């Protein structure tokens, strides 16, 4: 009875967030998310309520299916996804033309109303597509429903659900392989951020996680080619998993290292080949470069340096700071990977989580869904930092209370302040252990 009531409460809160309130209703959205995360943290993390495999999977599926016909509320990225899919279906390279240019490429008798609707709601029509080719295949799948937005969305959502199922399967296999509690699966499956950002907002970091889990699972099984496929698929989807390259190379030795390296190079090259068609790489690189040097959102170290710099020299160093921090990120990851020991499943998994943490703390843009791959890996090694961050990062949606977007630096300070506390609390406990109250 208790489980049924909890499920009903979760479904009701999700329905309100996705069918009733807009993202401008931040107070309501934050309140409902806090309720969901508090419930999740208490029941799944603290109480570790016993949930059977079948009933847990059924509940996780039902929670996601309630969002199946929902138009994403918290993010408008899906307009670009659908638009790119329509481009490909009409034989237009999304890397070669700006969205504002492509209407001229359609047949004069084509009905432009649907495309105009997508274009008018898109958040970056003046940029070439920055989504890698594997992404574009999924976008093309959405176009199979024709020019019907709801059905385009449903097809994207079904693809995400299929990969969520694969992630559940891989998590279950790893849990059984390592003798872990089934609760580790529920920590991922019932996390509110995972549900909202993947099924709800149609982001594809869940597919990246599937690839990373595949890689780590087959690393443990010592299957080089399958592990290389997993990491290559994740990298082909988002490019970000390339940051794990130094760690992966350190995790193999001898002939296995060469097999992994060559297989990964071949697969990643194949996944990225469409970029060179019609000089598409030029548009892709231009948008990627501008993204690194122009966009700012929910950053930590970046904002701190920016404010100090601006206070000293009197201007925003945005155009220099983003690329500079990218170099710092690369060097930091190389140093970390060099010194990090990789001899067990927990070490390679924890190493990947730490690398993601380094990367995200130094980025100028940290959207909530960026956390999901690291969080999904982190549940396998009892990582608290990303668990807590999935609860805090929703504060970044306060930026959408108004138009134009305006971030609340008080809330950003609160988000990262609490996160840093959880990050350093184990160190504090080591340096200042609790004293016995009766100790004189």
Keywords:
66% helix; 20 helices; mainly alpha; globular; single chain; disordered C terminus; 440 residues
Could you characterize the architecture of this molecule?
- With 440 residues, the chain is an all-alpha fold.
- It has one domain.
- The protein is built from 20 helices and no strands.
- The protein has helices at 2-20, 26-46, 53-65, 78-89, 113-121, 133-142, 149-178, 183-189, 192-200, 205-220, 224-238, 245-250, 254-272, 280-294, 301-313, 318-339, 345-361, 372-378, 385-392, 409-431.
- The longest helix is centred in the middle third of the chain and has 30 residues, at 149-178.
- It is globular and about 65 Å long.
- The termini are far apart.
Set down the secondary structure blueprint:
Elements: H1 2-20, H2 26-46, H3 53-65, H4 78-89, H5 113-121, H6 133-142, H7 149-178, H8 183-189, H9 192-200, H10 205-220, H11 224-238, H12 245-250, H13 254-272, H14 280-294, H15 301-313, H16 318-339, H17 345-361, H18 372-378, H19 385-392, H20 409-431
Helix pairs in contact: 1-2, 4-5, 4-6, 6-7, 7-10, 10-11, 10-18, 11-13, 16-17, 17-18, 19-20
User: Please, what is the average pLDDT?
Assistant: 90
Residue windows where pLDDT falls under 50 for at least 5 positions:
435-440
Q: Spell the H/E element sequence.
A: HHHHHHHHHHHHHHHHHHHH
Count of separate structural domains: 1
Taking the alpha carbons of the first and last residues, their distance comes to 50 Å
